[in-house]
Each structure stands twice: as C-alpha cells, then as structure tokens.
Recover the amino acids of this structure.
C-alpha cells in the first residue's frame, strides 16, 4: 500500500501545475517586466511605465528584498514636463551585456501606447556596476519614426541590435559611434500579423482592437553568427549577422537572407544558453519551452504561476530567472479594469545551462 501511495504522490508532483522547483526570488506591488543579475549576485529589475505609475524605473533588489532606485533616485524621478536628458522616462528592458555594463532601453514614451518625446527621451543608457556611474548615453531619435517603440537589445562586439515594436523594424547600431540604421522595415519577420493569446484569450485594447506588438524578442547565437528575432506573437525568424552588419547590402538582398526558424507561440520573453538553446515563455499556456539549434522543442516547465513570464535571464549558476508581470491583466487590455493580482513575482528555476552574454 505504501508503495502505491508513493507512486501516486510522485505522479501528482510531476504533473501538478504548481512546480516545487520554481523558487520565489522577489516580489513587488508595481508591475515589472525584466531582471538581470551580475556575477557577484546583484539583482536589477525593470519597471515599465505601463499604468501611469511614477517613480522607480530601474531598481536593485537588496538581500532583504527591498528594491532601491538605480543608479540613483535622480535618474528615477522623471515627471511629465521635466527634462528628459538624464532621466529614465519609460524603460522597457535591461540586461548586463558582454562588456559587463548594465544596459537600459528607455523608450522615451510617457505611457504605453504613446509616441516618444523629443530630445533624448528615447535612448540607451549603460552603467558601470563597480562605480554605479553612467558610462554612455546613446540617443535613439536618429533611428526612430513617429510611432517607434524601441523594445529590446542584444550586443555582439561593438554592434547593438534593437527591435522596434511600434514601427516594425530591426535597428543596427554602432556602440562606439552611436550611429545606427533601420533594416527589414515592415518585413513579414518584423510585423505582428498573428493575434496574441494569453491565458486562453486574444489580447484586445479597450476599443476592442486586437493588440499587435511588432518586432519584440531577439537573441544572438553563442558564436555570434545568427540573430533570431520575432514579433510578440511569433513566429521566430533568423538571419546571419554578417548580412545585418553590412551597410552596403541592398534591402532586397537582406530580405532574401531571412528565413523562418520556428513557429513560436505568443511570447513574453526569451533567453539563449551557451549551447544555443533558446528558451521561450508561452504566455498563453503559462509555460517555458526550449528550442534547440536544430529546431526541436521540449517543455522546461508548466506552472499556473507563470502569468505573462517576460524577459528571461540565465545566470552564472545555471538558473533561469523568470519575471512574471501579468501584462495581459492590465487595465489597458481589460476594459479599463486592472486585474493584476499583486504582488507580482520573480522566480528562478535550475536548468543547469551556462549563459551566453550578448
């Protein structure tokens, strides 16, 4: 009898929608959408301005769980009408790059769905984690259009790759010169043509229109050869970086080098490990899947707590960090009623993979 009970318990633990391997790291009463960690264990988080909330945009999570403004309060106290040059207006993503700096994408938009402000509102900001000082500010107005929404970045050498989720395109930027150019504008690989589904429902705005988030997630293969990218609803495309990095190649020729890689689901965030496996958060089925370089899919974890798992991160200890922000439950997608169940949580899961920094 004991053997049967043990077998039943094991079966239930394996197929229970709440997985004990998912470890709670931090909680917040403000929605976040990204996390990144340093080699010495510091934790940084991103708070996008999505419900008109003021205050902290980039925070550091202390060992006692308290979150403090980073790199200081002055960078995190922008208000409408104030100067935008040395302030975070609306940050959307952050990550520690291969150069060891903390890179932040500031969309420069006062609120979700609005256009960027003028000046240096839209920008990339890099921060030295040893001194906690700003290293570089790269204005993005030069590579932006009226409804541009710079979404995320990846870095390889002196090249920064960005996605524009508002005016569909990829942006190729020279980190040293601060100059960039737009490619694959309105190409099928950058345009979101598929409904985004979350928790079994098609996402719609308060006017009943289906939500479209264009070029969004992107990853670079560990050898730097391939850039993978997609709209939020998928699918995932790929192109060799040698073609992206060549300013002399024609747009038509570049488009011919783009190929479909995998039919990914509606996605909150991605990460890539040192073996080239891409981890994808399925916001509809509340799960994380892994896609190998040769296009084979496997389930990493399925859990009811993965409510819009956003930008993923792999640390140096083999953990996958998973920020859950419940984006689809915001009032902008729920007929004006905020249905987020606070606090929102960041989890981590041991996957035994090594990170790649790009």
């Amino acid at each position: 009898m004991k053997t049967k009970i043990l077998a039943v318990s094991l079966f239930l633990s394996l197929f229970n929608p709440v997985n004990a391997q998912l470890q709670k790291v931090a909680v917040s009463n403000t929605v976040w959408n990204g996390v990144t960690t340093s080699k010495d264990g510091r934790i940084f988080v991103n708070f996008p301005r999505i419900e008109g909330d003021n205050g902290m945009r980039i925070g550091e999570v202390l060992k006692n769980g308290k979150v403090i403004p980073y790199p200081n309060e002055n960078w995190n106290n922008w208000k409408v009408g104030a100067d935008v040059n040395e302030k975070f207006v609306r940050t959307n993503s952050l990550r520690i790059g291969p150069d060891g700096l903390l890179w932040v994408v500031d969309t420069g938009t006062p609120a979700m769905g609005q256009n960027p402000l003028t000046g240096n509102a839209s920008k990339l900001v890099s921060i030295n984690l040893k001194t906690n000082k700003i290293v570089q500010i790269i204005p993005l107005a030069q590579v932006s259009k009226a409804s541009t929404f710079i979404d995320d970045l990846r870095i390889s050498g002196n090249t920064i790759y960005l996605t524009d989720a508002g005016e569909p395109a990829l942006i190729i930027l020279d980190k040293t010169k601060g100059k960039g150019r737009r490619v694959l504008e309105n190409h099928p690989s950058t345009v979101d043509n598929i409904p985004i589904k979350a928790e079994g429902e098609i996402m719609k705005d308060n006017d009943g229109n289906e939500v479209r988030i264009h070029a969004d997630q992107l990853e670079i293969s560990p050898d730097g050869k391939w850039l993978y990218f997609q709209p939020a609803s998928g699918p995932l495309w790929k192109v060799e970086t040698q073609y992206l990095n060549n300013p002399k190649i024609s747009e038509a020729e570049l488009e011919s080098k783009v190929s479909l890689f995998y039919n990914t689901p509606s996605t909150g965030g991605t990460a890539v490990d040192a073996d080239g496996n891409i981890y994808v958060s399925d916001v509809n089925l509340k799960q994380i899947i892994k896609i190998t370089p040769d296009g084979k899919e496997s389930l990493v974890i399925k859990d009811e707590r993965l409510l819009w798992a956003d930008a993923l991160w792999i640390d140096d200890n083999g953990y996958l960090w998973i920020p859950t922000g419940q984006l689809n439950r915001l009032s902008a997608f729920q007929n004006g009623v905020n249905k987020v169940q606070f606090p929102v949580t960041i989890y981590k899961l041991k996957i035994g993979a090594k990170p790649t920094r790009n």
Observations:
- Residues 2-15 form the longest helix (14 residues).
- The two ends are 53 Å apart (CA to CA).
- The CA atoms of residues 223 and 332 lie 40 Å apart.
- Residues 1-17 have pLDDT under 50 and may be disordered.
